[in-house]
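Student: I would love a firmer grasp of how sequence relates to backbone shape in proteins. Thank you; the sequence and its tokens follow:
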Amino acid sequence: MIDLVLTSIPKKIRMDFLICIHLHILFKPCSHKIDYMKCYTHNNKDAVGQCGSCGKGICSDCAVDLNKKLFCRGCASSGNASASRNISLTRRDPGMAALLSFIFIGAGQIYNGQLGKFLLLWGINFAIVMVSIILMVVLIGFFTIFLVIPVWLYGIYDAYRSAKEINIQLGVE
């Protein structure tokens, strides 16, 4: 498979490619100098990661670990650590999340940014409705349709609880 892909690449580029990815499957050592990311503050030190907020390279001396994420000292001390580039968590109103789930099954989960839970609730409800429609032929379907109610009530409870957990994680509860 690799040979097939590599045969479509010109030989000069292919050799550089094999050397530069550092798989060390070749018998000769890599001749290229590797430039690692350097710390933004300490230019002579290799970075151990990037700040989760501003994206600057940070060394082990500058790294601050908050909730299993790395941040630079500047972002950690200024409070920018919770305002990450990749995760946009904001305060959620548990009452609003519950109300939305009361009105429309799973709407509170969407409000909380939990699309997976929304799809799961809708999948369960869809299955219950389909089984109920099929069972209506033998008149038992009228009773099975009421199985939607516990799922709907769980959705309301889960939206409320999840909104509170998000607020606790942000430290705004």
